[in-house]
Q: What sequence folds into this?
């Protein structure tokens, strides 16, 4: 695929904690992206099912989460991205979400991938921390083999997205191989870089995932210089108090300056 279009942004709080936080974040992101001319897809998860500890908060649940995401769509006119963890969730979530996101830990789950693809919605597959970029060919094919419920057969070009979010490096650490962004482009899918999950330190603090928020900007800049179709950022008004990914979410007040950097690099690479 040839990199031509400006990058699009997937952003929002990691988990849906309350309607107030979601609406505040969505409104700010919409206004900033409108000012900067960036295409925005709002993302937040109704359930964080893959927490390190069973005592960790998971979010508001599917029913309340979908209600809040529907309000975001209606109030701010934003397309919605959210995670699915179980096959049975795909059909009801697809009634609200424009993109069904497959969490990295579940990126090899055949039934989940095919249930998501069968809805006809875009499927964003987050590359597992344990997977090589060429392993994603299998995940793509599983989606292509799905039986569409509405007659809309998924195609690799546009209906399936691939997201790089770092690879396991020993225990409690991730690294990003920027060549993964190049390799995955060979499969005909838009490629996205997840700059906030890539700075996680999984399960590194007695059952809690830490992270390095200060590394988000340099990794983002590097990925944009390599060339990506999309950028993924977790954004929160007060990240240190967030119920998940507190150490790596971007502060809402910093999002405009960060996106100014992103747009400048993207424009330099792709031209006006």
A:
């Amino acid at each position: 695929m040839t990199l031509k279009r400006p990058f699009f942004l997937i952003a929002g709080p990691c988990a849906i904690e309350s309607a107030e936080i979601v609406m505040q974040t969505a409104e700010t992101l919409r206004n900033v992206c409108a000012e900067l001319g960036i295409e925005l897809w709002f993302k937040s998860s109704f359930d964080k099912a893959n927490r390190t500890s069973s005592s960790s908060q998971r979010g508001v649940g599917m029913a309340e989460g979908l209600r809040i995401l529907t309000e975001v769509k209606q109030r701010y006119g934003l397309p919605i991205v959210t995670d699915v963890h179980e096959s049975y969730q795909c059909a009801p979530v697809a009634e609200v979400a424009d993109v069904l996101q497959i969490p990295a830990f579940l990126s090899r789950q055949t039934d989940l991938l095919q249930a998501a693809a069968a809805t006809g919605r875009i499927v964003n597959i987050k590359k597992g921390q344990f997977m090589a970029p060429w392993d994603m060919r299998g995940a793509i094919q599983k989606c292509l083999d799905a039986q569409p419920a509405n007659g809309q057969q998924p195609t690799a070009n546009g209906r399936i997205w691939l997201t790089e979010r770092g690879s396991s490096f020993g225990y409690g650490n991730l690294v990003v191989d920027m060549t993964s962004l190049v390799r995955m482009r060979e499969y005909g899918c838009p490629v996205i870089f997840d700059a906030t999950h890539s700075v996680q330190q999984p399960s590194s603090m007695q059952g809690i995932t830490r992270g390095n928020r200060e590394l988000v900007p340099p990794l983002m800049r590097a990925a944009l210089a390599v060339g990506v179709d999309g950028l993924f950022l977790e954004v929160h008004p007060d990240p240190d108090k967030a119920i998940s990914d507190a150490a790596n979410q971007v502060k809402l007040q910093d999002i405009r300056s960060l996106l100014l950097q992103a747009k400048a690099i993207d424009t330099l690479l792709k031209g006006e």
About this structure: The longest strand covers residues 230-236. The chain has nine helices and 13 strands. The mean pLDDT is 91.
